[in-house]
Amino acid sequence: MEDGDACKITLMYRGDLTADSTPRAPSPPDADPASRAPRPRDTDPTAGAVLIWFTFPGKPYEIASVWEANGRLRGYYTNVVRPPDLSDPAAWHITDLFLDVWQPRGREPEILDEDELEEALAKKWIEPGEAERTRSEALAVLERIRSRRWPPRVVRRWPLDAVPSLRFRRDEPGRYFANLVSTRVIAYGLYVLGAVSLTSVLFAAATDALIARGSSQTVWLVTLAIEAVLLLPFALAGRLPATEHAQPSEAMTERTLLAAAAATGIAVLLLNRIEIWRDLLVAVYASLAFFLTVFAVCRAWFDRTFPIAGIAGLLLCLIALVVLR
Question: Which of 55, 72, 232, 290 has the smallest set of CB atoms within 10 Å of its CB?
Fold first, then answer.
């Protein structure tokens, strides 16, 4: 579902399960060909569970977030592996080093399959040095769990309900990132508006900052500026609610923005009263021009295509702004 340089994310459905946890039903086309179903014994997920696998190039582990069929997080499963060979996109090569760490939700973590590692060592399937490194890695993961530093943020960032966003990002990266930037900018404006409203109400109730010049008004304006500055990095980094992922069901397109710009222009021509709505129209066209620029850049950068609709809409907005000014 995601093929990034730092992390590759794949999806695995589990069908009807036998007693030894072997899936009977085949995985879907976008399932991870190199993944193995977790074996956390009595905590094994039920039939219909979904696993989201996170594979990290150059790292000695891969992680699965395990979700039950009802959407409840079951826990996190860490496989200790040799750093995977992902050079061939058609066939990944991942060597399991037997030890696993099961991190059930709300319960103590545990290291699994130590007996399998001992058997592999006895049968010389693995060298003593590599076995020792495997134990050290599993113990390091266990320590990170107990200090609340595991799993990595990317694993927690993509829960089960974010799967549609992952597919959207995979299938239409230009549109995905354009919507992601646009959503965060819009959310930033809304959060700033909310902060300004609440702060202004408090200052109006306690001071005369809104009606008279003076130190109170200066403090009020400085407070608003500080709030706007503090909110900006949180919004752009996706740390505010509703800003982390772009949802395909809510996604905009540059064609929609182009249509909005054209409809606004037609309405102005029909009304023939530009002077009344001049300031509002400038704000509307400036906003549309910004978002169309975002779409044009994202389409060109991620999709490697010439964004005809985005460029056409941007030109229309620029012409309208020149006429209005």
Answer: 72
Q: At what angle do helices 308-324 and 254-271 cross, to 10 degrees?
A: 30
Distance, CA of 322 to CA of 245 (rounded, Å): 35
DSSP string, 115-168: HHHHHHHHTTSS-HHHHHHHHHHHHHHHHHHHTT--S-HHHHHS-GGGHHHHHH
Mean pLDDT, range 304-320, rounded to an integer? 91
Scan for tokens 């973590």, then name that residue. Answer: 109
41-61 average pLDDT score: 78
Q: Are strands 73-81 and 61-67 parallel, antiparallel or unpaired?
A: antiparallel
CA 124 to chain centre: 42
Q: Tell me the two tokens of residue 177.
A: 């990132």
Give the pLDDT score at 46: 59
- Whether a cis peptide bond, with omega within 30° of 0, leads into 164 is no
Cα–Cα distance list, 80 to 1, 35, 56, 74 (Å): 22, 12, 12, 20
The reported pLDDT for the residue numbered 38 is 45
Q: Would you mind telling me the total number of residues written for the chain in this entry?
A: 325
Mean pLDDT confidence for 105-126: 92
Residue type, position 109, single letter: P
Q: Which residue has the tokens 């709300």?
A: 106
pLDDT at 15: 54
